[in-house]
Give the backbone structure.
Amino acid sequence: MIGPYVLPDDVFDALAAGAGGRPAVLLLLRARRSRNLLLLRRALDGPCGRAVEPAADLLAGVERVAPGAARSVIDGPAFGTWAARTLRDCPAHHGGGCAGRDLAALAVLAAVRAARPARVTVPVREGRLRLPGLGTVTGLGETPEALVVVEAPAGAEGVPGTSAGSCRVRVLTAAGERVLPRDPSRPGHGWQPVAVLDARHRGLTLRLPLETAAPELPALETASAGPAAWQDLLRQAWELLVDNHPRRAEELATGLNGIVPLPAPARGVASATSRHAFGTVLTSWPADPERLALTLLHEFQHSKLSALTDLVTLYEPGGRPRLYAPWRPDPRPPGGLLQGIYAHLGDLAFWQERSGSRHGPAQADAAWRLARTRAHVERGLTEAASHVRLTALGTRFLERLARTVRDGNRGGTAAGGGSGGERLARAVARVQAGDEAVWRLRWAAADDAATERLAALWRAGRPAGPLPAEDVRAATGAVAGPGPEFGRWAARQRGAERARPAREAADAVLAAPDRAQGWAELASAAAEEDRPGADVLRTRTELVRDLCVRLTARQPATPPGTTPPGPPDPLTLAAWPADPAVGPDPSGGGPAADDAAMPPGTAPPRPPDPLALAAWLAGTAVGTDRSGAGPAADEEEAVQGAPQARGAHPARGPGRVGRGEPPEAGPAPGPPSGDGLAVPAESGSAQAPMEPARSPGPDPAADEGPVAPAPPGPGEGPTAGAELGGGGGPGQKTGVSMSQNARSPLAKTSATG
């Protein structure tokens, strides 16, 4: 019988705060199992049904005699990714390559674990027969499929603890027969087993297969870092987690179900999470226990949020499709931004502890990483609050999350306050401002017609009016970071006392306006000196740059005998946008009060100083439509209107972005509604009728591949983010029927370190 899943208010709030504990993970795990069973039902009812049916029958038989063995497969690393691929983009529903046939390999694992006799046909690809959770049979040649026969001793079926080494597994092809080792964890001729890593500390046990045989997940030979090396590294990482993060270690012991090794990048660590494989961590060789511990914390946050969004809707369509995430080199969809924010809560907890327990250079490094991670989360919260169409539950979720960040900030770091803490905060702010400026130059573009209109207004000496809409381009293919030049500059900022003077940076930009590094230094310097227009230089860098280039290109030559105009008065420029009665000196670099007042034959102003241009744009920027919808309907009325206050920073409270105001408590969330919407529970049998979920339809964000890792700047940890689907409607007790949730996109989470 299908029953409901209800997500209680306190569990929702605990998950929103970043943790949740073992009970929350168990609830998410059961809900994900129910979802996987519904996907299986859809596969059986769809065009792949005939290919799926034999393996589904075997799973149902296993479930009757050994429910735990069936559940372990349905909850495992490969089942969800198999179901998603079969339903979404099976390449040949009615041909020999139908993805539905891959369920047979998972059914073999269930039969072996239950010691149940079975005969099932499994696809062979490139001469390899992959049996997830068991291993890979190699050297099978060109045969397209093999018959796998599981033989068990009499009386062993369904008896707990008797399956290990009790089954005889035979693989039959047209070329002959292979018999797997009695103990499938031991290598043999043409047999590469899936190693099982085991770590125990203070009563908590973590058992994870080093999964190299799942056909739906990346496969990698582990010769460079074999099972023994992974075992030793996991043991040390587990001790670190249990000793310093016991509650999160309980979550990991409950929900983690496998590690998939990835190829190592040129630098750093690559890690990712599949939205459809709850509890599975994809990672390259982490090299040290601390990095592995951090990766497990970070990636499991992704799994929790993916499972949570099976039950609740956090955002709706209609916001900006591509957003800035400071931990990524590429634009992110709204769900990817939320995923990154949530995953970095794991990093925040990790570096909070490390910064308080280390000493000397190691402590300084941890303090830097903590400050950088906190700045990333705070900036991500600002972006989400401004540009994501959050539901009531989504707003509540981010408020709880922001409270966690504020509470950690009030707790302080081992760096302490005083001059040392201030220097650290300034260094982080410099790097973050420069990084955002470079990102905008790479991905954002202002509308040409709107930019030309602004150029005409500047030349006419009129206010800028609302800022034009922006267009953030979509990333295609592998995306690298901003490059080694920025990496070297960012590394220098960590030890710098102050930024490069803004005046000097502005002159450098005028000399080379196409050099992104110069704009990064200008944005950082303007923010540190609190220059008018500093926010515009950081958040609309492409607009300031395009205007500078456009105005310079159309600057006529100075007539012979005419004295070139002098530099603008910065005090006048700063006051002029706020007070229409004050106009800049017509001989300076800013707009004149009235073009007609300029004497005939007088040379027009020289190309604008980018600092003055940013201040001019900022004069009405606070009154513009920050969602990018474009100018107001009545431009003149918008220009004359009073400036509007900026939106509150969700982590720091009201204030301007990037200024580091002291944290303030946000508004108290409204009372939750008492609605409890049903979520189907798992059925008693894999073969039992289940309510089919609606087809999610094409998923524009599905199968995003990992981004090419950028050279890590100071404090970079593993990063991840992904499009996620929401489901259901607002209300807590929170929950939604699985069929309702299926209307939302189902996408893969992917990331790199």
Q: What stands out?
A: The chain has 23 helices and 18 strands. Confidence is low (pLDDT under 50) at residues 556-602, 620-753. The longest helix spans residues 361-387.
